[in-house]
Amino acid sequence: MPNTHLPHVSNGTNFPLSRAFGLAASLALGLAASAPATAQESWRAFDVPALSLKCPSPAAIARLDRGYHVHFESDELELLERRSPVFLPLGDLLSLLSSEAARAKTPLRFMPGSTPLLARGGTEALAATEATLADLSAFAAALEVEVRAWWLPGAPAQPVRPDDATARQLIAAAKPLGVARVRSGSSVDLGQRRERSFVAGFWVEVASDSNAPDPWIGRVLTGRTLHLDVARARGGRAVHVDALLDLAEETAQVEFDPDTLDLGIVQQPVVEALQLGFSGTVDSGGWLAVSVEGRAPFEGVLLLQLATTADPATPARWRAFDLALANATPQRRPAPLPWEDERDSDYGSEGREKLDAAAFAQVADEASRAGESRLSSLKGRDARSGPQWSEGLLLVPTGDGEALTELGTLIAALERSRSAGREFDVQHGSVHVRGPLGEGGSLRVLSVTETTVLVDQDVEVAEKSWTPSPRIERMLAGFSVEGQLESGGLAVRGWSSERAPNTRVERHAAGLAALELFDRGLRSGSARIEGGSARELIEASGSRPALRVGLTPAK
């Protein structure tokens, strides 16, 4: 959790409830110790606003960040961190309410460990608490984003932003890939995943007069999944999304017998896979489309609808700013490789740094000072409250016009830049993929046939014993495009690989054990593509097609 501009009672979401109440109550009681209770003081029960409660979300389906669907024992599935929804920890909420009462010099205390919030104070303090909680509850309701997705096999290619009538006609008889309602800033997974195990190879243990193969198990992951990072934009009038669509089908499993008494059969699954990474911003209730042509068995259209609610128009005490998009940093997925390589697959710049909510609070504070309306310090020497912040959230008093104006223009300018729209167009032979791409967003088009190959036989030798040890590798045949949109241009690289059928060498010829000889080829290229242009990353060569990437101008 980032630091908050509050009298601290917690450093994160795991702060014990009873301790949060206890510290906040102690703060309030200490400040009001010299003020005797009056007849006007009474106990009130308040609901905890949803903004300070855990945000439920569907069970996570692991993203395949490297693009691989055949996994070995040591492979990590999910390599990148998931994003956190906008959140105000309960301890920070209690500190906010207590510090408001302290600045107004109105006694207020909380019952430790109570749920709902039990507060005691004068009429003025309780009324202020009620108004603040009402502001937070209304803002929490506006933070909800509804996500609906459809995968439409065989549907004709669509515009990247289809109109509502066209989209609804396409989905009229279709079953959704998934539906979710999450808080701004959340990561969510839709669809379904299937996983099965297989005998990927063998570890070999050799002693002085014996040996034993130890089977090691691999996993095949297939299905149709959509992984989303969702953030509201323009005060809830639009929604931004970073997405990874993952389509995979297992088409066969080949078995290879090394023809030894010591080893069993090695299983080699064959998976057809398509991964598409894209991003974009759409007006609330609008549609985004990604179209795939010429890629059996994944021809079709992904339709995505995103809807949310505008920020409350007239909060009483606190105006809240959703910083989920402003804080977000694009997640640079590690690039998939056509086969095993010890080199790092990452490339290019590290992308922009995260803007912490504290930086926005500082801007608000400076604007107030410049407007001769200085906000209170951390010690609360003034009667006015200063900006408060937590995970993806900034709260500013409604009476601080200078700060509100400054923040409004700052966040609007930042969001305009990050939601600037482009459209990508990737072609490789008969395969044609089109979709949206936002500023700072990562592009991925990975279209491959994935399998494993027994590439060599090592030997383990002891005093009176020896045994072969198979060496297994993953191989991808197809093409890959990876890029990032920066300053209106797409920095991109790609590769295209192919392989011929393996040649089996029998044990009597190989001597140690039967093995496979492979024949593979690789082409690669890179470029920076400006809006309104297209480049061939890889030129056509004989029967091998070109790999072409295009980018539309800003919209």
Description:
The longest helix has 20 residues, at 123-142. Strands 2, 7, 8, 9, 10, 18, 19, 20 and 21 form a 9-stranded antiparallel sheet that branches. Strands 6-5-12-11-17-16-23-22 form an 8-stranded antiparallel sheet. It has a 3-stranded antiparallel sheet with strand order 1-4-3. The model is unreliable at 1-39 and 372-383 (pLDDT under 50). The chain starts with 16 loop residues before the first helix and ends with a strand. It is built from 8 helices and 23 strands. It has 555 residues and is of the alpha+beta class. It folds into 2 domains: 1-53 and 86-142, no CATH class; 143-551, no CATH class. It is elongated, with a radius of gyration of 29 Å.
Give the end-to-end Cα distance, rounded to a whole number of Å.
Answer: 35 Å
Structural category is: alpha+beta
Q: What is the number of domains?
A: 2
The tally of strands reads 23
Radius of gyration: 29 Å
Helix content: 10-25%
Low-confidence stretches: 1-39, 372-383
What is the typical, i.e. mean, pLDDT? 84
Please report which band the strand proportion falls in: under 5%, 5-15%, 15-25%, 25-35%, 35-45% or over 45%: 35-45%
Characterize the largest beta sheet: strand count, sense, and whether it forms a barrel: 9 strands, antiparallel
What would you call the shape? elongated
Number of helices: 8
